[in-house]
Amino acid sequence: MLIVKERGVKKMSILMVTIIVLVLYLLFMLWIGNYAASKSTGKTEADYFVTSWKTSWIGVSFSIAATFASGAYVLGTIGVFYGNPAALTGYAFGTTFAPFLLWILGRRIWAIGRKYGYSTFTDLIGDFYQSEKLRVVVSILICIFFAPYLAVNFMAPAILTTQVSGGAIPFWVSCLVFGVITTIYTWRAGMRGVIWTDIAQTSIMIVGFAIIIPLMFGVAGGWETVWQKLPEKIATYKPGGGSFWIVLSWFWIVGFMQTGNPDRAFRLLVAKDLGQIRKGCLASLALLTIWTVVGFSLGWSLAVVVPGVAKTDLAFGEAVSKFMPYMMPVLMVVVWAGGMSTLDSGMIAISAMLTKDVYRRNINPQATDEKVYKVGQGITIVLGVFAFVLALLNLKTLWFFVGAGAAVAMQWTPSIIAALYWKRATTAGAWSGILSGIGITALFYYVIKCPIPGPGGAAIIGMVVNVLALILVSSATRPLDEKHVAKYQGIFR
Amino acid sequence: MQKNPWKTVTWVVEIVFLFLALTAPLNPILTTKVSVFAWCFTMIGLGCIGVLLAALKGYPPEDFSLKD
User: Fold this and answer.
1) Residue B15 touches chain A, beta carbons under 8 Å
2) pTM of the predicted structure, to 2 decimals
3) Model ipTM?
């Protein structure tokens, strides 16, 4: 009886410490957001959405890394590393390939964006392909499919908070606190606030993992025990090439996500100069590799510490609460940091597309810069409320939304590459490529079971159809005016 | 303008990386957990070399400037 009571008191005090640490973390984020807002150089669209092109390589890389490591990564992806680490070698290959693509595409995207004052990729698509309709339709489609991804970021921290508090803190309360704080600093400070908080959140996550991982290995009995006990069944490929498609699927979603997802890809537009983009890509390589190493380390050790957890999203939380409950405050802050860093980036990216592509270009072309700035702030708040409501529905597993958002969003990539490198690309080609890519991907994600397993399966099929449609239709239709194409592809020495 | 030979090296390394990495599940020698992860981390190393070549040698910012 006494032991049970003591355990209850201990559990209560851990919960109290967790809440206090979390509150301190949230206050810190608000302070950073406020400080970032005070550094604003004026109420202009360029300042709100692209920091007036003043971001250094630290901002570019830490922001890409923080946005990639969402709350769903900390619980959902690490859950997959736990369930099938062999398949996640594809994830590792993707994180190594992504910075290559970031640099190869990013240098041209940055240069064109800087020359013509772009703050979104749809600026490039609409201008290069000379189609206002294409700009708006692509913006709206990407926003529609990407919006559920915003809600995922509420779900992971709220699920963990409810799990840890034994239901004392309801799911909706966590969602509300999480959404309000993130929306406040994003609304106040725009992209600058997002990037500055991302730097802090990446640092917090790295330190948190650096503390938790050695302790987890200790609980498991040390490195050698982990390696000995790690089941061959989950740590080797299926015989006869049976793991090929799942590895390819993970590679695809992770590799193309960094240049495809608007929440992180727009960082290519905010840098001070090309040197900062280059350093940013190299630092992204280091940071994304850290996320891979974290994933494998935790996946392997969790497979030994808490084997056989059916709902893999819960494995990490279960291991911490069972074997090292004193680490719960650290895990909690790591999960909240991951969730907030991805939510803020998603909100500012979608806000940029709706504000610039829809409002400024099509609803109120005469709007002043200050008016656009205020509309951008308003849309950020609306997005925060929308994602909060969607999160309350608490649908399906976490990875579904992350995968679905990324799979659809990356379908503008072939048309962007064509705008940067292919003189023969045409407006009709871009229309057919993007629409068929999004349509096929959505079909296999939401309606029909995809024949290729894993989160990137639908995106692979969508992208193949997309590229074929782009090439075939472009080849069959009238090319764009040479002088116009030269304004984009001919501006480089 | 002189062609930068490092561009070819960059793409060769990147294509070799992609081929060896993505065909890992078909590779008959990768049958144990040691071999799977040793290969995986070797591929990460090769991929990193590809990124470094692209950013520092093949496509450095110095070779890239806007026409006025």
Assistant:
1) no
2) 0.93
3) 0.94
